[in-house]
Fold this protein.
Amino acid sequence: MSDNECYFDPKEMLVVHASAVHIDGAAWIFLGRSGAGKSTICTLLNNCAQPLADDTILVAPRLGGGWMVADIRDYSLLVGATTENRTSPPTIMPLQAIFQLYQAAEPRLQRIGALETCRHLVEAAIEATSPTRLRQPEICKTIFVQMATIARSAPGYHLYFDLSAGIAETLKKEFGLVDKSISSCISEIASGAIAPSQ
C-alpha cells in the first residue's frame, strides 16, 4: 500500500462540485459556480499539472489523517462495484489546497480562514447533491460536519485570475513550485496558442 492509502466507504465519501489538478503528488481543488472558470483554470495549468477532475470530485478520508481526492467518474472502481478492465488504477491524490475562483483583471491569491473555506465547500457539496438527499437531515448534517473537517485540514484561498502569467507567479511563490513551464503554458493561452475551455 502507498502512503496515499485511503478507504472509499460510500458512507464516508463526499461529492463536491469542483475541478481538480494534481501537482507534485498533491491535489488542488477549484470551487466556483458554473461559469466561474473551473475548467479554464485547469486548462491554464495544463502543461504544469495533471488533470484530476473536470467538474465533480470525490473526497474521502485518508488513513492516518487528511483527505484524498478523485474524479467522480472513478466511483464504481473505487468502491469495487465494477469489473471494468483498466490498464491503470484510478488517480487518487492527497488534498493540498482549496481555491474559490473569481475572474478578475488583476491576478492575486488571498488566504482565507477555515470558516470561509467551509462555507465554500458546503455550497459546492450542496450543488452536487440531489434535492431528495438534501431533504434528509442526516445527510445535511454529514455535509456540514465533514466539510468543516476538510476546511480545517487544508488551506483555503480566494484565487482571482485572468489569462496572464501573473497568476502562475503567484502560485509558484505561494507553493514553492520550481515548475518547468507553469508560466509558459499560461503565456501560450494568453497569446491564443492554446484555447482555454469554456
